[in-house]
Specification:
By secondary structure, the protein is an alpha+beta fold. It folds into two domains: 3-150, NADH Oxidase; 164-214. Helix content is 50%, strand content 13%. It has a four-stranded antiparallel β-sheet with strand order 1-2-4-3, with helices on both faces. The longest helix is centred in the middle third of the chain and has 34 residues, at 82-115. It is globular, with a radius of gyration of 20 Å.
């Protein structure tokens, strides 16, 4: 599966088949996480795989009672080691970079899982202390998110998304360009190239969406 297709067709899955995930596929997912970018290449993360039914149930209960999580045959708890980032980048490293690093790893994992036929869901709402207790996380380590993994038992509809014009600015915050004459004025001789390239990218992603709708 092409990476752009994976980006467009990935969905959050909350219903899973009662089928275990093969460990070679688990290894592929974890490898994808390992190759994620991180601030200063610190890689201040750890990935905890949970397949025990009792622990999965305890994790689901700690995630504000999201009991659907227990159906997933595998949980991956992604934790950060903020002390490492603080030594290099101070408070910003501890409070921001550590979270960003784990988020990059989580996205890599979810895309890799989707590419090999598995479903995932990112869960960030949980009682941190209960999660720590359940999987024996030491005090200086912080759980950042939990990824449920398994074979999908549902096919969610394509979610509503804002248009590119709603989320993209040119060269400064608020620099919206909606009309042809505006982009010509704003970007000068590069306008034609920029407009054409962006349209080509949008059309490519739209093809993936249309393909997903037919499945």
């Amino acid at each position: 599966m092409d990476v752009l297709e994976a980006v467009v067709t990935r969905r959050s899955i909350r219903k899973y088949l009662d089928v275990p995930v093969e460990w070679d596929k688990v290894g592929t997912i974890l490898e994808a996480g390992r190759w994620a970018p991180s601030a200063g290449n610190l890689q201040n993360w750890k990935f905890i795989t949970i397949d025990d039914p009792g622990k999965r149930k305890a994790i689901a209960e700690a995630c504000v009672g999201q009991l659907w999580m227990a159906q997933a045959p595998l949980h991956i708890v992604i934790v950060s080691e903020p002390d490492t980032a603080r030594r290099h980048y101070g408070v910003r490293g501890e409070r921001l970079y550590s979270i960003q690093n784990c988020a990059c790893a989580a996205q890599n994992m979810m895309l890799a899982a989707h590419a090999i036929g598995l479903g995932t869901c990112w869960v960030g709402a949980f009682d941190e202390e209960r999660i720590k207790e359940t999987v024996n996380i030491p005090e200086h380590v912080r759980p950042q998110m939990i990824i449920t993994v398994g074979y999908p038992a549902e096919t969610p509809k394509i979610p509503w998304k804002l248009t590119l014009e709603d989320v993209q600015f040119f060269r400064s915050y608020g620099g919206q360009i909606n009309k042809v004459k505006d982009i010509n004025l704003y970007l000068g001789y590069t306008a034609h190239y920029v407009r054409g390239a962006m349209q080509k990218g949008a059309e490519l992603l739209d093809k993936f969406l249309q393909r997903a709708e037919k499945k």
